[in-house]
Design a protein that fits this description.
3 helices; 4-stranded mixed beta sheet; single chain
């Protein structure tokens, strides 16, 4: 069983990868329309390969996977599993949700006081929900997954409770 939850990349990574993909596509199209096609043939193949990789990374999603009664965190591309990581749940009985903020830090001029008036506020923060397991003594915590959408957190909780021995705290 699997559940695909949300985009794998955070906001900053997604934004930077879109810019990089756009620049790579523009360079590739410029090379395709150049006068001498055969001299750039190998470089154009490399650029085409990079464009395909960048676009596929943009569409990756993260989620949870159950195989042989074991819990995995997984990376999906169009519903297919690209990578999975086993989460050992035998030593843990319950899990809980910790909320926090994921934030980018674009504070370039923290040392120069005069630039604070001219610097735009580019900070982007979102609420994050981290699913953590803990043992009976509540002394050992282990992260399961970090999500940013509350409705996806509810789906993940239901999936974990239905398919594992873990209980929500």
């Amino acid at each position: 069983m699997k559940i695909i939850l949300e985009r794998k990349l955070d906001f900053k990574q997604f934004q930077n990868l879109i810019i990089l993909t756009f620049i790579t596509v523009m360079v590739f199209l410029g090379m395709l329309n150049s006068v001498d096609f055969k001299s750039y043939y190998s470089i154009e193949i490399v650029f085409l390969f990079l464009i395909l990789i960048f676009i596929s990374i943009l569409f990756t999603k993260k989620g949870l996977l159950i195989e042989n009664r074991e819990l995995y965190t997984a990376t999906f591309l169009f519903g297919f599993v690209l990578r999975k990581t086993l989460i050992l749940t035998e030593d843990f009985k319950q899990f809980y949700i910790r909320t926090g903020k994921l934030s980018t830090n674009y504070n370039y001029s923290s040392d120069i006081e005069e630039f604070h008036n001219w610097e735009p506020n580019l900070n982007h923060s979102v609420t994050s929900f981290t699913l953590l397991m803990f043992d009976e003594n509540k002394s050992i915590n282990k992260k399961i997954l970090r999500l940013t959408k509350p409705e996806k957190v509810k789906l993940a909780i239901d999936f974990i409770v239905r398919n594992t021995h873990l209980e929500k705290y």
